[in-house]
Amino acid sequence: MITRSAATLLLLAFAALIQAEERTTRIDSPDGKVAAIVTTSDVAPYVSYTVERNGAEVVAPSALDVRLQWIGSLADGAELVEVDQDKFDTTSTMPWGKARTIRDHGSTATLEFLTKGKARWRLAFRVYNDGVAFRYEFPKQTELTDVVVEAEQTEFRLTGDPSVTYLPLPNFTSTHEGLYGRLPMSDLPEDQLFGVPLLAVREDGDSVMITEARLRDYAGMYLERKGASDAIFTSRLSPLPGKPSQCVVATAPHSSPWRVVMLADHPGRFIESQLIEQLNDPAEGDFAWLEPGKTTFPWWNGEIEHGKASTPDNNFEVNRRYIDFAARNGIAYHGLSSVHGDRPWHVQEDPGFNWPRPDADTRVARDDLDLPRILAYAESKGVGIRLWVHWKSLYDHLEESFANYEQWGVRGLMVDFMDRDDQEMIAIQEEILQAAARHQLHIQFHGASKPTGEHRTYPNLFNREGALNLEFLKWSDTCTPPHNVNIAYTRAMAGPTDYHLGGFNAVARSQFQPQNNRPVVLGTRCHHLAMYVVYLNPMPMVADVPEAYEGEPGFDFLVDAPTTWDETRFVAGEDGKYLVVARRKGDAWYLGGMNDWNARTVELPLAFLGNVTYEARLYTDGDPSGNSPNAMKQRTMTVDARSKLSLTLACGGGFTAILHPLQAE
């Protein structure tokens, strides 16, 4: 007879045996505050990882696994055969971004495994002061030539019950243009697709952001919550079109994107991080021809711009007005998409933009536009022309179209309606970027998923949409100041964000009505000016009609605001409520703050100014109630690192400021 005490000892001995068979690999950040611990075991989860920050678990032991066709689970029965660890520290520059230089500094470990069938696979980990990244790698080998990924089962088991800001998505084929929710982790719906980045904030402000980096020739990642009582997110991959059981089809060697766990003591600190860019490959080739800058976009103003018949003379006059406006105000580009009747600039008989017509030909401009005349006039004024295209119409004649655009003197494209991030579409996007670079064209992806840092590899990718943005005010009231703030704390942290900026006709919340022609915006003028600082974008729009700007208060800030930066700092904020960001260009600092619907007074520390005294020119809300949203005040003051700016942000309000150093007497 076995007594209870003896049974307990046997259980303890068995547990000890299991523990003894576990093997752990620890990777520490350069500052010693962040660690990733990878554990292999003979019992599930067979391979797992843990993330610690300041000695406390942030991500509890979470499973790592991929299911391959013909092999099944990689982790089940995997044998760890080799571990290589190292450190790295390099510095390079980027043509544009949130900072001029990028320092890639961290610790790395590569763990090599054998499956039951002796196929080799690897886990690569990188640990930084501001996060952890890992990916699955499939080296070249005779045992695994074809890599067919059926599913990825990476877990993110967050500790505690953080507040989560999330983007629910209906399926794998969407524009990623939706409203964010905010719930405790324990209240999130199960079996719901969530887009990334996803933000989790604890009561003490410690924050986690989950996303991916270097998405190339692979399927985009989503998250699902699994388990009614556990705070577990599990990865889901976008399947190939018409192949629900296949997400990736490739030949070894191949690797997944980096799965990224960003860490900070405040969610606003993520805006300073370059982790996503660090995980991408540096650009190859010469990109000295790139010219970031602002752009017009008349489509925003609707048919009011095409009220006359579509003739070469009428279309020239419409575009000439914008080109002249751009030339007067240092706006680098004019965006050209269509003529009267919602007909694209290129050959296509039927109106409409959102699906490719059989006769669409992006190699040929329509006769009633006289594009050569418009291009010649723009060149004489020093303004570049950008064209809109549907991705499919372009892709059918990609090289020929780009060769024509280069010969014509076109500077860039908006490529629209991609609405997918499966492996096939990701490969198409990269092919477009490569071809565009050969022909010295910049690219703006619309109707596309979030960025993953690919602008480091392809600097001619100026921005992506992938966010419900101000264009929605043409037909709905969904793009509100609280939503704009949510974007700043989530989607915008992942990289350049095209948001249809520049609406200069704001109305009070109670007076708003959506309208396609000359749309109005929600939030104060200062709120919208702040977007030029808060959102990273090397080619922001100046989307309103020319008459909306010139002579109006605040337009001088819009003209002065740079589009590329040398340094970025988080100043103050509270996720979902307000955010203040400072960016430096040369020796000048630009500040931008965006607020939700609740008026508030904020005290802003300026310690980042160092030992220099500055003259600050401030643009602040003129009416705290938000009922006169175009009203603004301007004032100047002297500030230094010891100063604190006390500002009142209106309901739906914001502020901007330009700080220039004072010359010593």
UniProtKB/TrEMBL annotation:
E.C. numbers: 3.2.1.22
A single GO molecular function term of this UniProt record: carbohydrate binding
The protein in question is named Retaining alpha-galactosidase
Q: Keyword Signal on this protein?
A: yes
**Endpoints of the signal sequence:** 1-20
- What InterPro entries does the entry give? Aldolase_TIM, GH, GH-type_carb-bd, GH97_C, GH97_catalytic, GH97_N, Glyco_hydro_b, Glycosyl_hydrolase_97
Q: Which residues form the Glycosyl-hydrolase 97 N-terminal domain?
A: 27-282
